[in-house]
Design brief:
This protein has one domain: Up-down Bundle (Four Helix Bundle (Hemerythrin (Met), subunit A)), CATH 1.20.120.450. By secondary structure, it is mainly alpha-helical. It contains 6 helices and 2 strands. It has a two-stranded antiparallel ribbon. 59% of the residues lie in helices and 5% in strands. Strand 1 and strand 2 form a beta hairpin.
Length: 131
């Protein structure tokens, strides 16, 4: 499961390869859309919260709001991910609304990253055609 999450985050970050600064900052015209940079920052930040904060009990490196202003640092997330104790996968996480297993949290993180990977790839393709 860990490799799948990393692969989905790599898809998001990889969508930025070869784009100019203007293309990375380009935002589709539809209401509520984001640039590729913001999608990447949010995807990395959400993975950090889902996995590193909820499972490993670490403090987040930023807030969700900051993700919509900052650039992603996938290397830092990977380094933190590598320190996740493997035995935690069978633990239950008590949350404000319900209790989830660690495996359920990882599956949620993968689904979330995969959704944004598709958005990032589509945004990249449209940004390339927009000039």
């Amino acid at each position: 499961m860990r490799d799948r999450l990393i692969r989905e985050i790599d898809r998001v970050i990889g969508a930025s390869d070869g784009l100019s600064a203007a293309q990375l900052a380009w935002t589709p015209g539809a209401k509520g859309t984001n640039s590729l940079l913001i999608i990447a920052a949010h995807t990395v930040g959400a993975a950090e919260r889902h996995i590193l904060v909820n499972i490993a009990g670490r403090k987040p490196s930023g807030t969700r709001e900051e993700e919509f202003e900052a650039k992603a640092d996938i290397a830092g997330v990977r380094a933190r991910w590598d320190n996740l104790p493997p035995g935690r996968l069978d633990d239950d996480l008590v949350g404000p609304v319900s209790t989830r297993s660690v495996q359920a949290m990882i599956i949620h993180a993968i689904a979330h990253a995969a959704e944004h990977a598709g958005q990032a790839e589509l945004t990249r393709d449209i940004a390339k055609d927009s000039g």
